[in-house]
Amino acid sequence: MIELPEALARADELKSELKGKRAEKVWPPSSPHKFCWFNGEASSYDDMLSGRKVVDAQGFGIFAEIIFEGDLRVCFNDGVNVRIFGEGDNIPGKYQLRIDFSDGTVLVFTVAMYGSIACADGSYDNEYYIVSKNSISPISPEFDHTYFFGLLDSAKPNLSAKAFLATKQRIPGLGNGVLQDILFEAGIHPKKKIGSFTEHEKELLFVSIKEVLSEMVRLRGRDTEKDLWGNPGGYKTKLSKNTYKDGCPKCGGEITKAAYLGGTVYFCPECQT
């Protein structure tokens, strides 16, 4: 799933690979998916984009977007997978959107569980997009102690650590995937109530958010996610579906896997309290 490290990495890759290239044909879904949502009719995207050059790409929160001439944008989020192909490559026959470029490059969008793909102008009216784009990024200098402690103070004290970090778009781009290592490094149990945090725990959580996300961004995403060419990200997750059976990286004890708040959490019952 796309979270902040992947949004930034995919945007960098798209900019590097596509800037200056002209869209030649946009194909609507060859395999319709009831949990893939479009802005308007996907069949209209060809008329909107064909003949336009890519001028930029950017990532923020849970979104990455390709910017075309005329400020038209193709943005995608969450469970949308994007792959790039060149001339002679075997192009998948099933997709939710496909963009062919005049130099033979092909961009294919697919959705596994759910996700959105939108073609819109700069005023795309989607609350998650707007919040992701306009909120303070947790890796920016503006996301400082004052800002973070303000978020904590404004939240209900009976919220769990996971609920605080990954719901209500308090910190766009920080979701159930990246929070596993953040809470592990901070030594905080995902179900611990934020009202019970000590000042030291608040500081540990703040530092962990900054350091873990920065490292994930530096290494171009997590190893549980894939880049434009299908390669895993460079950040080796400590607690994830890939590693939880290996035991705790700190104490060697057994990692707990549990369903919680609509997703899976991984934690060490000894190191996270």
Automatic annotation (TrEMBL):
Signal peptide: none annotated. One of its GO terms (molecular function) is DNA-(apurinic or apyrimidinic site) endonuclease activity. InterPro entries: FPG_N, H2TH_FPG, Ribosomal_uS13-like_H2TH. Gene3D superfamilies: 1.10.8.50. Residues 134-228 form the Formamidopyrimidine-DNA glycosylase H2TH DNA-binding domain. GO terms for biological process: base-excision repair. It comes from the Bacteria. Belongs to the FPG family. This is Formamidopyrimidine-DNA glycosylase H2TH DNA-binding domain-containing protein. It comes from Anaerostipes caccae (strain DSM 14662 / CCUG 47493 / JCM 13470 / NCIMB 13811 / L1-92).
